[in-house]
Amino acid sequence: MKDECRDNSSFVLHTSYFLSPIPYPLSPAPHILSTKKEIPMRLVVFDRPTDKRINFYPLALSRPIFELRCGMTSLLDKLLAKFAAKDAACFVPPYLAEVYRAQSGRTVNDAQSLGGDDLLLLDGRVKAAELNLSATGPSQVGLDAEGDVLYVRLAKADLGKVKTDSLENLLESAKVAFPHAAEPVAAWNYTWDLVLANPAQLTVDFRAAGRSGVEGTIEEPRAIRGSLKDVYVAPGAAIHPMVVIDAEHGPVYLDEGVEVHPFSRIEGPCYVGKKSMLLGCKCREGNSIGPMCRLGGEVEESIVHGYSNKYHDGFLGHAYVGEWVNLGAMTTNSDLKNDYSNVSVVLDGKRPIGTGSTKVGSLIGDHTKTSIGTLLNTGAYLGAMCLIATNGKLLPKYMPCFSWFVEGAVTKGFGKKKVYETAKIAMSRRKCQWTEAEERMWDEVFQITAPERDEAIKRGRNLLCPGKNA
Amino acid sequence: MDRNDVEKRVTKVVCQVLGCDADIVKPECHFVFDLGAESSQSVELVAAFEGEFQIEMDEDSALEVQTVGGAVEYISKFVK
Protein backbone atom coordinates (compact mmCIF):
# COMPACT_ATOMS: atom_id res chain seq x y z
CA MET A 1 0.00 0.00 0.00
CA LYS A 2 1.38 3.36 -0.93
CA ASP A 3 1.87 5.46 2.13
CA GLU A 4 0.99 9.01 1.19
CA CYS A 5 2.15 10.18 4.58
CA ARG A 6 5.72 9.20 3.92
CA ASP A 7 7.10 11.49 1.30
CA ASN A 8 10.81 11.28 1.77
CA SER A 9 11.76 13.45 -1.15
CA SER A 10 15.28 14.67 -0.91
CA PHE A 11 15.79 18.35 -1.21
CA VAL A 12 18.66 20.36 -2.49
CA LEU A 13 19.24 22.55 0.50
CA HIS A 14 16.60 23.15 3.07
CA THR A 15 13.76 20.84 3.76
CA SER A 16 10.66 22.50 5.06
CA TYR A 17 7.61 20.84 6.28
CA PHE A 18 4.10 21.09 7.44
CA LEU A 19 3.90 19.57 10.86
CA SER A 20 1.88 16.40 11.07
CA PRO A 21 1.25 14.01 13.89
CA ILE A 22 3.36 10.88 13.90
CA PRO A 23 4.13 8.42 12.51
CA TYR A 24 4.07 10.26 9.26
CA PRO A 25 7.00 12.61 8.89
CA LEU A 26 6.42 16.30 8.59
CA SER A 27 4.96 16.70 5.17
CA PRO A 28 7.20 18.58 2.83
CA ALA A 29 6.52 22.13 1.85
CA PRO A 30 8.57 23.84 -0.83
CA HIS A 31 12.20 24.22 -0.03
CA ILE A 32 13.49 27.71 0.06
CA LEU A 33 16.74 28.10 -1.77
CA SER A 34 19.49 29.65 0.24
CA THR A 35 22.50 31.13 -1.40
CA LYS A 36 24.31 31.34 1.88
CA LYS A 37 27.22 29.11 2.70
CA GLU A 38 26.60 26.86 5.67
CA ILE A 39 28.11 28.25 8.84
CA PRO A 40 29.97 25.84 11.11
CA MET A 41 27.97 25.98 14.33
CA ARG A 42 25.15 24.04 15.88
CA LEU A 43 21.72 25.59 15.76
CA VAL A 44 19.47 24.77 18.70
CA VAL A 45 15.86 25.89 18.49
CA PHE A 46 13.72 25.77 21.58
CA ASP A 47 10.11 26.03 22.65
CA ARG A 48 10.15 26.31 26.42
CA PRO A 49 7.20 25.18 28.52
CA THR A 50 6.46 28.67 29.80
CA ASP A 51 3.23 30.56 30.42
CA LYS A 52 3.61 32.19 27.02
CA ARG A 53 2.85 28.95 25.21
CA ILE A 54 -0.85 29.52 25.80
CA ASN A 55 -0.61 32.47 23.39
CA PHE A 56 -0.28 29.92 20.61
CA TYR A 57 -2.98 27.54 21.77
CA PRO A 58 -4.82 25.56 20.55
CA LEU A 59 -2.33 24.93 17.73
CA ALA A 60 0.72 24.70 20.00
CA LEU A 61 -0.94 22.16 22.26
CA SER A 62 0.05 19.45 19.82
CA ARG A 63 3.16 20.85 18.15
CA PRO A 64 6.14 23.03 18.97
CA ILE A 65 5.49 26.72 18.38
CA PHE A 66 8.28 26.78 15.82
CA GLU A 67 6.33 24.36 13.64
CA LEU A 68 3.60 26.94 13.19
CA ARG A 69 3.55 28.44 9.75
CA CYS A 70 3.72 31.85 8.21
CA GLY A 71 3.95 32.20 4.47
CA MET A 72 5.14 29.07 2.70
CA THR A 73 7.17 27.59 5.52
CA SER A 74 7.31 27.09 9.26
CA LEU A 75 9.01 29.40 11.74
CA LEU A 76 11.75 26.80 12.15
CA ASP A 77 12.32 26.68 8.41
CA LYS A 78 12.82 30.42 8.39
CA LEU A 79 15.40 30.22 11.16
CA LEU A 80 17.23 27.42 9.35
CA ALA A 81 17.29 29.47 6.16
CA LYS A 82 18.37 32.60 8.00
CA PHE A 83 21.48 30.90 9.36
CA ALA A 84 22.06 28.57 6.42
CA ALA A 85 21.75 25.60 8.75
CA LYS A 86 20.84 22.21 7.37
CA ASP A 87 19.06 21.23 10.53
CA ALA A 88 18.69 22.03 14.19
CA ALA A 89 18.58 20.26 17.50
CA CYS A 90 15.30 21.04 19.22
CA PHE A 91 13.92 21.45 22.71
CA VAL A 92 10.18 21.17 23.21
CA PRO A 93 7.83 20.66 26.17
CA PRO A 94 8.46 17.12 27.44
CA TYR A 95 5.03 15.77 26.54
CA LEU A 96 5.58 16.72 22.88
CA ALA A 97 9.07 15.25 22.63
CA GLU A 98 8.30 11.66 21.70
CA VAL A 99 5.90 12.60 18.94
CA TYR A 100 8.02 15.40 17.58
CA ARG A 101 11.15 13.27 17.55
CA ALA A 102 9.35 10.65 15.46
CA GLN A 103 7.84 13.23 13.13
CA SER A 104 10.93 15.27 12.48
CA GLY A 105 13.77 12.82 12.89
CA ARG A 106 15.58 15.57 14.76
CA THR A 107 17.48 15.44 18.00
CA VAL A 108 14.92 16.48 20.58
CA ASN A 109 15.41 17.37 24.25
CA ASP A 110 18.91 15.95 24.30
CA ALA A 111 21.25 17.87 26.64
CA GLN A 112 24.23 16.52 24.70
CA SER A 113 23.34 18.93 21.92
CA LEU A 114 24.22 21.77 24.32
CA GLY A 115 27.94 21.31 24.07
CA GLY A 116 30.94 20.48 21.96
CA ASP A 117 30.62 23.22 19.37
CA ASP A 118 29.85 26.85 18.79
CA LEU A 119 26.16 27.11 19.57
CA LEU A 120 23.36 29.38 18.52
CA LEU A 121 20.31 28.80 20.66
CA LEU A 122 17.14 30.43 19.43
CA ASP A 123 13.66 30.64 20.79
CA GLY A 124 11.45 29.39 17.97
CA ARG A 125 9.32 32.52 18.32
CA VAL A 126 12.11 34.79 17.12
CA LYS A 127 11.25 36.63 13.92
CA ALA A 128 13.99 35.45 11.58
CA ALA A 129 13.65 38.35 9.18
CA GLU A 130 14.07 40.95 11.92
CA LEU A 131 16.96 39.31 13.75
CA ASN A 132 20.20 41.19 13.24
CA LEU A 133 22.69 38.61 14.40
CA SER A 134 25.63 36.73 12.99
CA ALA A 135 25.62 33.02 13.67
CA THR A 136 29.11 33.10 15.07
CA GLY A 137 30.92 35.65 17.17
CA PRO A 138 31.50 36.48 20.80
CA SER A 139 29.06 35.01 23.28
CA GLN A 140 25.98 37.16 23.63
CA VAL A 141 22.42 36.98 24.90
CA GLY A 142 19.31 38.50 23.32
CA LEU A 143 16.27 39.27 25.41
CA ASP A 144 12.72 40.30 24.76
CA ALA A 145 11.22 43.41 26.33
CA GLU A 146 10.29 41.38 29.43
CA GLY A 147 13.80 40.09 29.95
CA ASP A 148 13.23 36.55 28.74
CA VAL A 149 16.11 34.99 26.84
CA LEU A 150 15.30 34.69 23.14
CA TYR A 151 18.73 33.72 21.93
CA VAL A 152 22.16 32.80 23.18
CA ARG A 153 25.15 32.88 20.91
CA LEU A 154 27.67 30.77 22.71
CA ALA A 155 31.26 30.48 21.56
CA LYS A 156 32.77 27.05 22.12
CA ALA A 157 35.52 28.63 24.20
CA ASP A 158 32.88 29.92 26.65
CA LEU A 159 31.10 26.62 27.21
CA GLY A 160 32.82 26.25 30.56
CA LYS A 161 31.20 29.48 31.79
CA VAL A 162 27.66 28.12 31.63
CA LYS A 163 25.71 25.12 32.84
CA THR A 164 25.03 22.77 29.98
CA ASP A 165 23.18 20.02 31.82
CA SER A 166 19.80 21.35 30.72
CA LEU A 167 18.39 24.00 28.43
CA GLU A 168 16.89 25.96 31.31
CA ASN A 169 20.17 26.03 33.21
CA LEU A 170 22.06 27.04 30.12
CA LEU A 171 19.74 29.95 29.38
CA GLU A 172 19.75 31.09 32.99
CA SER A 173 23.51 30.93 33.40
CA ALA A 174 24.17 32.51 30.01
CA LYS A 175 21.92 35.42 30.94
CA VAL A 176 24.20 36.10 33.88
CA ALA A 177 27.51 35.30 32.21
CA PHE A 178 27.35 37.13 28.90
CA PRO A 179 26.59 40.62 27.66
CA HIS A 180 23.08 41.37 26.48
CA ALA A 181 22.22 42.70 23.05
CA ALA A 182 21.37 46.38 23.13
CA GLU A 183 18.05 46.06 21.34
CA PRO A 184 15.13 43.81 22.34
CA VAL A 185 14.67 40.87 19.99
CA ALA A 186 11.48 40.77 17.94
CA ALA A 187 9.37 37.65 18.41
CA TRP A 188 5.99 36.30 17.45
CA ASN A 189 3.67 36.71 20.40
CA TYR A 190 0.34 35.28 19.33
CA THR A 191 -1.02 32.97 16.68
CA TRP A 192 -2.89 35.80 15.00
CA ASP A 193 0.42 37.62 14.47
CA LEU A 194 1.24 34.86 12.01
CA VAL A 195 -2.08 35.16 10.23
CA LEU A 196 -1.77 38.91 9.90
CA ALA A 197 1.79 38.66 8.57
CA ASN A 198 0.97 35.82 6.19
CA PRO A 199 0.27 37.74 2.95
CA ALA A 200 3.52 39.68 3.05
CA GLN A 201 5.49 36.61 4.10
CA LEU A 202 4.06 34.60 1.20
CA THR A 203 5.49 37.10 -1.23
CA VAL A 204 8.90 37.03 0.46
CA ASP A 205 8.93 33.22 0.50
CA PHE A 206 7.89 32.99 -3.15
CA ARG A 207 10.84 35.15 -4.15
CA ALA A 208 13.16 33.09 -1.96
CA ALA A 209 11.94 29.84 -3.52
CA GLY A 210 13.07 31.22 -6.85
CA ARG A 211 10.62 29.37 -9.03
CA SER A 212 8.12 30.47 -11.62
CA GLY A 213 6.33 29.17 -14.66
CA VAL A 214 4.23 26.12 -15.34
CA GLU A 215 5.72 22.67 -14.85
CA GLY A 216 2.38 21.03 -14.22
CA THR A 217 -0.63 21.19 -16.50
CA ILE A 218 -3.18 23.94 -17.02
CA GLU A 219 -6.11 22.94 -19.20
CA GLU A 220 -7.73 25.37 -21.60
CA PRO A 221 -9.46 27.69 -21.32
CA ARG A 222 -7.22 29.13 -18.70
CA ALA A 223 -6.91 32.59 -17.29
CA ILE A 224 -3.77 33.89 -15.66
CA ARG A 225 -3.82 37.50 -14.60
CA GLY A 226 -0.60 39.33 -13.86
CA SER A 227 2.83 38.12 -14.79
CA LEU A 228 3.64 34.46 -15.32
CA LYS A 229 6.79 35.21 -13.35
CA ASP A 230 4.56 35.43 -10.31
CA VAL A 231 3.03 32.02 -10.88
CA TYR A 232 4.51 28.62 -10.20
CA VAL A 233 2.65 25.43 -11.03
CA ALA A 234 4.78 22.54 -9.81
CA PRO A 235 5.20 19.21 -11.59
CA GLY A 236 2.18 17.00 -11.22
CA ALA A 237 -0.15 19.87 -10.43
CA ALA A 238 -3.32 19.73 -12.52
CA ILE A 239 -5.30 22.87 -13.14
CA HIS A 240 -8.65 22.12 -14.72
CA PRO A 241 -10.33 24.38 -17.29
CA MET A 242 -12.06 27.55 -16.17
CA VAL A 243 -9.67 28.31 -13.36
CA VAL A 244 -8.53 31.87 -12.74
CA ILE A 245 -5.07 32.42 -11.32
CA ASP A 246 -4.78 36.05 -10.37
CA ALA A 247 -1.20 37.00 -9.61
CA GLU A 248 -1.68 40.69 -10.23
CA HIS A 249 -1.39 41.55 -6.55
CA GLY A 250 0.83 38.73 -5.38
CA PRO A 251 2.46 35.47 -6.42
CA VAL A 252 0.72 32.09 -6.58
CA TYR A 253 2.60 28.88 -5.79
CA LEU A 254 0.75 25.62 -6.49
CA ASP A 255 2.86 22.77 -5.23
CA GLU A 256 3.31 19.25 -6.56
CA GLY A 257 0.17 17.24 -7.10
CA VAL A 258 -2.20 20.11 -6.42
CA GLU A 259 -5.52 19.73 -8.20
CA VAL A 260 -7.70 22.73 -8.90
CA HIS A 261 -11.23 22.07 -10.07
CA PRO A 262 -13.16 24.31 -12.47
CA PHE A 263 -14.53 27.64 -11.36
CA SER A 264 -11.87 28.13 -8.74
CA ARG A 265 -10.27 31.53 -8.44
CA ILE A 266 -6.87 31.77 -6.80
CA GLU A 267 -5.66 35.21 -5.83
CA GLY A 268 -2.08 35.87 -4.90
CA PRO A 269 -0.26 35.90 -2.70
CA CYS A 270 -1.09 32.26 -2.12
CA TYR A 271 0.57 28.95 -1.45
CA VAL A 272 -1.23 25.63 -1.90
CA GLY A 273 0.61 22.61 -0.52
CA LYS A 274 1.30 19.25 -2.07
CA LYS A 275 -1.67 17.16 -3.18
CA SER A 276 -4.22 19.62 -1.91
CA MET A 277 -7.41 20.15 -3.86
CA LEU A 278 -9.38 23.30 -4.51
CA LEU A 279 -12.96 22.51 -5.38
CA GLY A 280 -14.64 25.49 -6.97
CA CYS A 281 -12.86 27.49 -4.33
CA LYS A 282 -12.84 31.24 -4.07
CA CYS A 283 -9.29 31.26 -2.78
CA ARG A 284 -8.82 34.89 -1.92
CA GLU A 285 -5.48 36.56 -1.23
CA GLY A 286 -3.11 35.62 1.55
CA ASN A 287 -3.75 31.89 2.01
CA SER A 288 -1.27 29.20 3.03
CA ILE A 289 -2.85 25.81 2.49
CA GLY A 290 -1.90 22.22 2.76
CA PRO A 291 -0.67 19.66 2.10
CA MET A 292 -3.44 17.14 1.44
CA CYS A 293 -6.24 19.60 2.15
CA ARG A 294 -9.61 19.82 0.43
CA LEU A 295 -10.91 23.34 0.17
CA GLY A 296 -14.08 24.80 -1.25
CA GLY A 297 -16.15 27.88 -0.54
CA GLU A 298 -14.42 31.16 0.21
CA VAL A 299 -11.11 31.29 2.03
CA GLU A 300 -9.22 34.49 2.72
CA GLU A 301 -5.92 35.29 4.44
CA SER A 302 -5.90 32.03 6.34
CA ILE A 303 -3.35 29.42 7.30
CA VAL A 304 -4.46 25.80 7.12
CA HIS A 305 -2.17 22.97 8.15
CA GLY A 306 -2.20 19.61 6.40
CA TYR A 307 -4.95 17.05 6.01
CA SER A 308 -7.78 19.43 6.81
CA ASN A 309 -11.01 19.72 4.90
CA LYS A 310 -13.33 22.55 4.15
CA TYR A 311 -14.88 20.86 1.19
CA HIS A 312 -18.05 22.87 0.85
CA ASP A 313 -19.32 26.42 0.75
CA GLY A 314 -18.88 28.76 3.67
CA PHE A 315 -16.41 31.53 4.51
CA LEU A 316 -13.13 31.14 6.34
CA GLY A 317 -11.19 34.35 6.85
CA HIS A 318 -8.13 35.38 8.85
CA ALA A 319 -8.22 31.96 10.45
CA TYR A 320 -5.54 29.56 11.63
CA VAL A 321 -6.65 25.95 11.22
CA GLY A 322 -4.77 22.90 12.48
CA GLU A 323 -4.51 19.39 11.05
CA TRP A 324 -7.21 16.82 10.51
CA VAL A 325 -9.87 19.47 10.90
CA ASN A 326 -13.15 19.01 9.10
CA LEU A 327 -15.37 22.02 8.62
CA GLY A 328 -18.89 20.98 7.65
CA ALA A 329 -20.78 22.53 4.79
CA MET A 330 -21.59 26.21 5.30
CA THR A 331 -19.31 26.54 8.26
CA THR A 332 -18.51 30.22 8.32
CA ASN A 333 -16.38 32.41 10.51
CA SER A 334 -16.64 36.12 11.05
CA ASP A 335 -13.36 38.00 10.84
CA LEU A 336 -14.66 41.53 11.17
CA LYS A 337 -16.95 43.02 13.77
CA ASN A 338 -19.91 45.09 12.70
CA ASP A 339 -18.61 48.12 14.57
CA TYR A 340 -15.12 47.72 13.06
CA SER A 341 -13.55 47.62 16.51
CA ASN A 342 -10.53 45.48 17.30
CA VAL A 343 -11.14 41.78 17.73
CA SER A 344 -10.46 40.08 21.04
CA VAL A 345 -9.71 36.38 21.53
CA VAL A 346 -10.17 34.24 24.64
CA LEU A 347 -7.27 31.84 25.04
CA ASP A 348 -7.84 30.54 28.56
CA GLY A 349 -11.61 30.39 28.77
CA LYS A 350 -11.74 33.50 30.92
CA ARG A 351 -9.90 36.59 29.84
CA PRO A 352 -10.29 38.24 26.42
CA ILE A 353 -7.07 39.45 24.86
CA GLY A 354 -7.13 42.38 22.47
CA THR A 355 -5.52 41.49 19.17
CA GLY A 356 -5.06 45.09 18.11
CA SER A 357 -6.51 44.17 14.74
CA THR A 358 -9.94 44.63 13.22
CA LYS A 359 -9.48 41.43 11.23
CA VAL A 360 -9.08 38.18 13.10
CA GLY A 361 -11.02 35.03 12.33
CA SER A 362 -10.97 31.74 14.17
CA LEU A 363 -8.27 29.58 15.72
CA ILE A 364 -9.11 25.91 15.27
CA GLY A 365 -7.18 23.08 16.90
CA ASP A 366 -6.26 19.72 15.39
CA HIS A 367 -8.91 17.07 14.80
CA THR A 368 -11.82 19.41 15.48
CA LYS A 369 -14.94 18.89 13.43
CA THR A 370 -17.87 21.21 12.83
CA SER A 371 -21.35 20.31 11.70
CA ILE A 372 -23.13 21.84 8.76
CA GLY A 373 -24.08 25.44 9.23
CA THR A 374 -21.66 26.20 12.05
CA LEU A 375 -21.27 29.92 12.67
CA LEU A 376 -18.04 31.01 14.33
CA ASN A 377 -17.88 34.39 15.99
CA THR A 378 -15.13 36.92 15.33
CA GLY A 379 -11.95 35.72 17.02
CA ALA A 380 -13.44 32.34 17.95
CA TYR A 381 -11.27 29.75 19.66
CA LEU A 382 -12.09 26.11 18.94
CA GLY A 383 -9.86 23.81 20.91
CA ALA A 384 -8.40 20.62 19.54
CA MET A 385 -10.43 17.42 19.36
CA CYS A 386 -13.76 19.24 19.59
CA LEU A 387 -16.99 18.21 17.99
CA ILE A 388 -19.38 20.99 17.18
CA ALA A 389 -23.03 20.14 16.56
CA THR A 390 -24.42 23.59 16.06
CA ASN A 391 -27.90 24.73 16.92
CA GLY A 392 -27.83 27.39 14.22
CA LYS A 393 -26.71 30.22 16.48
CA LEU A 394 -23.31 31.80 16.79
CA LEU A 395 -21.01 29.59 18.82
CA PRO A 396 -19.51 30.79 22.09
CA LYS A 397 -16.16 32.41 21.41
CA TYR A 398 -14.27 29.83 23.44
CA MET A 399 -14.62 26.07 23.09
CA PRO A 400 -12.26 24.05 25.27
CA CYS A 401 -10.35 21.09 23.87
CA PHE A 402 -12.15 17.74 23.81
CA SER A 403 -15.53 19.37 24.27
CA TRP A 404 -18.68 18.54 22.40
CA PHE A 405 -21.04 21.37 21.69
CA VAL A 406 -24.57 20.05 21.64
CA GLU A 407 -27.86 21.96 21.82
CA GLY A 408 -26.11 25.19 22.63
CA ALA A 409 -24.17 23.75 25.55
CA VAL A 410 -20.64 22.50 26.08
CA THR A 411 -20.67 18.84 27.10
CA LYS A 412 -18.07 16.14 27.54
CA GLY A 413 -19.75 14.19 24.77
CA PHE A 414 -18.82 10.56 24.39
CA GLY A 415 -15.41 11.17 25.93
CA LYS A 416 -11.92 11.11 24.53
CA LYS A 417 -11.90 7.42 23.60
CA LYS A 418 -14.61 8.04 21.07
CA VAL A 419 -12.78 11.09 19.77
CA TYR A 420 -9.63 9.03 19.37
CA GLU A 421 -11.53 6.39 17.44
CA THR A 422 -12.80 9.06 15.08
CA ALA A 423 -9.30 10.47 14.68
CA LYS A 424 -7.98 7.02 13.82
CA ILE A 425 -10.65 6.62 11.15
CA ALA A 426 -9.99 10.06 9.69
CA MET A 427 -6.27 9.37 9.51
CA SER A 428 -6.66 5.91 8.05
CA ARG A 429 -8.71 7.41 5.22
CA ARG A 430 -5.53 9.24 4.21
CA LYS A 431 -3.39 6.17 4.83
CA CYS A 432 -1.92 7.62 8.01
CA GLN A 433 -1.63 5.89 11.31
CA TRP A 434 -2.54 6.92 14.81
CA THR A 435 0.09 5.70 17.25
CA GLU A 436 0.33 5.01 20.94
CA ALA A 437 2.81 7.86 21.31
CA GLU A 438 0.33 10.22 19.78
CA GLU A 439 -2.35 8.97 22.11
CA ARG A 440 -0.08 9.62 25.08
CA MET A 441 0.50 13.15 23.83
CA TRP A 442 -3.21 13.79 23.47
CA ASP A 443 -3.86 12.29 26.90
CA GLU A 444 -1.54 14.95 28.25
CA VAL A 445 -3.34 17.64 26.28
CA PHE A 446 -6.56 16.34 27.80
CA GLN A 447 -5.09 16.82 31.27
CA ILE A 448 -3.62 20.24 30.53
CA THR A 449 -6.94 21.52 29.30
CA ALA A 450 -9.14 19.85 31.93
CA PRO A 451 -9.76 22.89 34.18
CA GLU A 452 -11.33 25.13 31.53
CA ARG A 453 -13.21 22.20 30.02
CA ASP A 454 -14.66 21.14 33.38
CA GLU A 455 -15.85 24.69 34.00
CA ALA A 456 -17.49 24.89 30.61
CA ILE A 457 -19.14 21.51 31.08
CA LYS A 458 -20.60 22.65 34.40
CA ARG A 459 -22.06 25.69 32.72
CA GLY A 460 -23.38 23.43 29.97
CA ARG A 461 -25.21 21.27 32.49
CA ASN A 462 -26.86 24.37 33.87
CA LEU A 463 -28.03 25.29 30.41
CA LEU A 464 -29.43 21.85 29.79
CA CYS A 465 -30.98 21.62 33.28
CA PRO A 466 -32.05 25.15 34.21
CA GLY A 467 -32.47 25.74 37.92
CA LYS A 468 -29.75 23.33 38.94
CA ASN A 469 -26.55 24.68 40.39
CA ALA A 470 -24.17 22.20 38.89
CA MET B 1 -33.65 9.62 47.37
CA ASP B 2 -35.76 6.54 46.66
CA ARG B 3 -35.99 4.78 43.34
CA ASN B 4 -39.40 6.28 42.53
CA ASP B 5 -38.00 9.78 42.89
CA VAL B 6 -35.11 8.87 40.62
CA GLU B 7 -37.52 7.43 38.06
CA LYS B 8 -39.70 10.55 38.08
CA ARG B 9 -36.75 12.83 37.61
CA VAL B 10 -35.22 10.61 34.91
CA THR B 11 -38.57 10.72 33.09
CA LYS B 12 -38.67 14.50 33.42
CA VAL B 13 -35.19 14.85 31.92
CA VAL B 14 -35.95 12.41 29.12
CA CYS B 15 -39.09 14.35 28.19
CA GLN B 16 -37.23 17.62 28.33
CA VAL B 17 -34.34 16.46 26.15
CA LEU B 18 -36.18 14.24 23.68
CA GLY B 19 -39.36 16.31 23.57
CA CYS B 20 -41.68 13.37 24.24
CA ASP B 21 -44.70 13.01 26.52
CA ALA B 22 -44.22 11.48 29.96
CA ASP B 23 -46.87 8.85 29.39
CA ILE B 24 -44.81 7.09 26.71
CA VAL B 25 -41.64 7.01 28.78
CA LYS B 26 -41.53 3.56 30.36
CA PRO B 27 -38.63 1.76 32.07
CA GLU B 28 -38.34 -0.67 29.17
CA CYS B 29 -38.14 2.09 26.57
CA HIS B 30 -34.93 2.07 24.52
CA PHE B 31 -33.61 5.61 24.09
CA VAL B 32 -32.81 5.16 20.40
CA PHE B 33 -35.32 2.62 19.10
CA ASP B 34 -38.36 3.59 21.18
CA LEU B 35 -37.80 7.26 21.96
CA GLY B 36 -35.87 8.25 18.81
CA ALA B 37 -32.79 9.65 20.48
CA GLU B 38 -30.11 10.83 18.06
CA SER B 39 -26.47 10.41 19.03
CA SER B 40 -26.19 14.10 19.89
CA GLN B 41 -29.20 13.72 22.17
CA SER B 42 -27.46 10.87 23.97
CA VAL B 43 -24.72 13.33 24.82
CA GLU B 44 -27.35 15.83 25.90
CA LEU B 45 -29.10 13.24 28.06
CA VAL B 46 -25.91 12.39 29.92
CA ALA B 47 -25.20 16.07 30.54
CA ALA B 48 -28.79 16.67 31.65
CA PHE B 49 -28.76 13.69 34.04
CA GLU B 50 -25.52 14.98 35.52
CA GLY B 51 -27.10 18.38 36.01
CA GLU B 52 -30.33 17.05 37.42
CA PHE B 53 -28.74 14.68 39.92
CA GLN B 54 -25.51 16.58 40.57
CA ILE B 55 -23.44 13.57 39.63
CA GLU B 56 -20.49 12.83 37.39
CA MET B 57 -21.11 9.96 34.99
CA ASP B 58 -18.29 8.03 33.35
CA GLU B 59 -18.73 8.42 29.60
CA ASP B 60 -18.13 4.79 28.69
CA SER B 61 -20.41 3.23 31.27
CA ALA B 62 -23.06 5.92 30.81
CA LEU B 63 -23.23 5.18 27.11
CA GLU B 64 -23.80 1.51 27.82
CA VAL B 65 -27.11 2.48 29.36
CA GLN B 66 -29.68 1.89 26.64
CA THR B 67 -33.05 2.16 28.37
CA VAL B 68 -34.93 4.43 30.73
CA GLY B 69 -34.92 1.70 33.39
CA GLY B 70 -31.20 1.25 32.87
CA ALA B 71 -30.70 4.95 33.47
CA VAL B 72 -32.73 4.77 36.69
CA GLU B 73 -30.66 1.80 37.80
CA TYR B 74 -27.39 3.49 36.94
CA ILE B 75 -28.22 6.81 38.56
CA SER B 76 -29.66 5.18 41.70
CA LYS B 77 -26.19 3.90 42.50
CA PHE B 78 -24.94 7.47 42.75
CA VAL B 79 -27.76 9.11 44.67
CA LYS B 80 -28.33 6.67 47.54
Question: Keywords for this structure?
Answer:
heterodimer; A: 470 residues; Spore Coat Polysaccharide Biosynthesis Protein SpsA, Chain A; UDP N-Acetylglucosamine Acyltransferase, domain 1; 10-stranded parallel sheet; 7 helices; 20% helix; globular; B: 80 residues; mainly alpha; 57% helix
Q: Major beta sheet of chain A, specifics? A: 10 strands, parallel
**Beta strands of chain B, count:** 0
Helical content of chain A stands at 10-25%
Strand arrangement within the widest β-sheet of chain A reads 10-13-16-19-22-25-28-33-36-38
Number of domains of chain B: 1
Protein described:
- The complex is a heterodimer of chains A (470) and B (80).
- With 470 residues, chain A is an alpha/beta fold.
- Chain A has two domains: 174 residues, Spore Coat Polysaccharide Biosynthesis Protein SpsA, Chain A, CATH 3.90.550; 202 residues, 3 Solenoid (UDP N-Acetylglucosamine Acyltransferase, domain 1).
- Helices cover 20% and strands 24% of the residues of chain A.
- Chain A contains seven helices and 40 strands.
- Chain A has a ten-stranded parallel sheet with strand order 10-13-16-19-22-25-28-33-36-38. Chain A has a six-stranded parallel sheet with strand order 11-14-17-20-23-26, with no helix packed on it. Chain A has a six-stranded parallel sheet with strand order 12-15-18-21-24-27, with no helix packed on it.
- In chain A, strand 4 and strand 5 form a beta hairpin.
- Chain A is globular.
- About 4% of the residues of chain A have low confidence.
- Chain B has a single domain, classed as ACP-like (Non-ribosomal Peptide Synthetase Peptidyl Carrier Protein, Chain A, Orthogonal Bundle), CATH 1.10.1200.10.
- Helix content of chain B is 57%, strand content 0%.
- Chain B has four helices and no strands.
- Chain B is globular, with a radius of gyration of 11 Å.
- Chain B starts with a helix and ends with a helix.
- In chain B, helix 1 packs across helix 2 and helix 1 packs across helix 4.
- By secondary structure, chain B is mainly α.
- Chains A and B meet through helix 5 and helix 7 of A and helix 2 and helix 3 of B.
